[in-house]
Amino acid sequence: MTPASPATLAIPLFASATSIFLRKALMLPELTWTTQHLTLGAFLASAAIALATFPPFMKWFNRRRPRVSVEHFATAFAFGFFLDLAAVAAYKIVPRWHA
User: Fold this and answer.
1) pLDDT 10s digits, 13-68
2) pTM of the predicted structure, to 2 decimals
3) When comparing pLDDT for 6 and 74, which is higher?
4) Cis omega before residue 66 (within 30°)?
5) Is 26 helix (H, G, I), strand (E, B) or coil?
6) Which of 19, 36, 55, 89 could hold 81 in an S-S bridge, CB 3.0 to 4.6 Å?
7) CA distance 84 to 19
8) pLDDT in tens, 65-97
9) Relative orientation angle of helices 40-64 and 70-93, to the nearest 10 degrees
10) For residue 1, what pLDDT is reported?
11) Which residues lie closer than 8 Å to 22 by C-beta, 6 or more apart?
12) Taking the mean position of all CA atoms in its chain, how far away is CA 94?
């Protein structure tokens, strides 16, 4: 497998960070959209989370799908969204975490 260019790595990473950021505007379980949580701080935190969690996931995914395609963008976006959704679920199960 040939090494990927920085652009092919940056686009899925940006998709993952964006999905984490946009999930913050979706209020669950009502499924209402609010923009009050969309701040620069929230985006920077989303980018930091994506930088920390995304590389191991993408390494695993690239072994299964070595050709760059739309799947890389869609999977990265879904990964970020469900990663943040899992954090919300964990906070609801163990409420003392976010006291």
Assistant:
1) 788 888 888 888 888 777 788 888 888 888 888 888 888 888 888 788 888 887 87
2) 0.66
3) 74
4) no
5) strand
6) 19
7) 9
8) 878 778 888 888 888 888 888 888 887 777 665
9) 120
10) 44
11) 38, 81
12) 22
15 and 77 Cβ atoms separated by less than 8 Å = yes
Question: How far is C-alpha 72 from the geometric centre of its chain's CA atoms?
Answer: 13
From the centroid of its chain, how far is CA 88?
13
25's CB contacts (< 8 A; 6+ apart) are 33, 34, 35, 37, 38
* pLDDT level of residue 3 (50, 70, 90 thresholds): low
Burial of 52 (0-12, 13-18, 19+ CB in 10 A): exposed
